[in-house]
Amino acid sequence: MSRNSAGTYTSPIPNFTPGSTIRSQDVNEKFTDIDQALTASLDRTGNGGMQAPFKAQDGSAANPAITFNSEPGLGFFRGGAASVSLVASASVIQEWALTYVNINRPLTINNTTPNAVGLTVYGNGTGVGINVTGGTPSGNAPGARGIVTEGGAGAGSGGGGTGLFTIGGAAGGAGGSVQGLGLESTGGIAGIAAPLDAAGTVRPTRYYAASAQLPATANAIFPLNGLAWTNAVGVNNVGLDVYTRSMGTLAGWQTLRFGLRYDVDLVPGAGGMLEFGDSGTSIARGSAATATSPVAALTLVNAHVAFADTVISPNGNVSVKNVLTPANITKAWAVVGVLGTAVGSGLTPDVAITGPLYDTFNIDTVTATQAGVVTVTFKQPFATGAYKASITVEKIGDILGTALVPKILQRSASTLQFRLTETNSGGTTTNYQFTNTSDRIGFHIDCVGRQ
């Protein structure tokens, strides 16, 4: 019974008139309605569950529709059509929509299942499996790396895991189809292996491969075909093939040879081979060079070959055929003619006339005196005066019975001085003088030594 505004009491039982008898039937009907309402309600302590979809208001980033007592700013709200967002302190952390998923904070995947893959991504149709773009900083700072990988640390004597391992996709199976590239890049590719020696010290100057990766047969070649570049279809195939070759051991380390191969018309190595190894550098021109059409294996354009300052002289049992070293190449040469002068010619009597330097290298000047002394000055001096000098003479307008022989007077790092001796038909040898004004003496001068 409850009292209304008029001060009279009303009954909670329908159709009850004060002063009349309360029927048990009316009371039972009322409590049945209360029982049904309580049974259908959602219990705050978690007894029972929803038997129909739970509907919440749309909410917003500032007021999430589903939130928590201790942190009302953390929760979920409807961001738009087919979109729900996770929000914290009015900032959207993640957004799930029908056609995309956005994650606006760093994502860490920590796989705790033993020996299981941490992340697997599949593309759909022609879609890329994963597309990563590095960040763009402000100012003049370089762009951030698109993706960084690091192999897992080895256990005990085990080596470290590979930082990046790729496998090209399987071919379609129809004629002409090929396996996909393991790695494709429009920019440069650079890498370095930094192995550890027995003491655990990093040795970045030596490249290493486990013995299991080497061919079982010595000197066998195995290509790493996952690294290749191919030009347009219909043009000679230009491939870059990287391989290693077993060359024995050096101080406990397996020595490998690194080479580059140039393919022509899909014939491996037909265009040539370039190898770098512990035995030096080897260049092969390939099948394009034949006996009837020889082609240079190496051509330098506007450049030169530089040698180190030192060279090791071979032992007696070591062949030196076709070997070029800093010690056996000509460092200076000249072709010059000298014409004698006579007293009263208007020139200093003790100076002869030297003609033009017809063909020279590293020669500054060549001068001669009437007394027969010739001085050669080098542009770039030798290391010392202990170099080899070869001089040949030809007498233009030669007089029968006269032989001219050069005799070196002195050698310094910057100059060479010599004169001629003359032997007549009677066997008498004298110093030759440049007084003959009609016969020009020609000299060929070659100097070999260290600079």
Give the overall average pLDDT. 75
Major β-sheet profile: 5 strands, antiparallel
Q: How far apart, in Å, are the first and last alpha carbons?
A: 124 Å
Please provide the ordered H/E string of secondary-structure elements.
EEHEEEEEEEEEEEEEEEEEEEE
Task: Report what the structure shows.
- The protein is mainly β.
- Among the domains are: 2-40, no CATH class; 57-98, no CATH class; 211-284, no CATH class; 330-448, no CATH class.
- Helices cover 4% and strands 29% of the residues.
- It has 1 helix and 22 strands.
- The strands form 6 sheets. Strands 13, 14, 15, 18 and 22 form a 5-stranded antiparallel beta sheet that branches.
- Strand 16 (363-368) and strand 17 (373-378) form a beta hairpin.
- The longest helix is centred in the first third of the chain and has 17 residues, at 24-40.
- The relative contact order is 0.05.
- Mean pLDDT is 75; it is low at 202-256.
Nutshell version of this structure?
The protein has one helix and 22 strands. It has 451 residues and is mainly beta.
Features:
451 residues; mainly beta; five-stranded antiparallel beta sheet; 1 helix; 22 strands
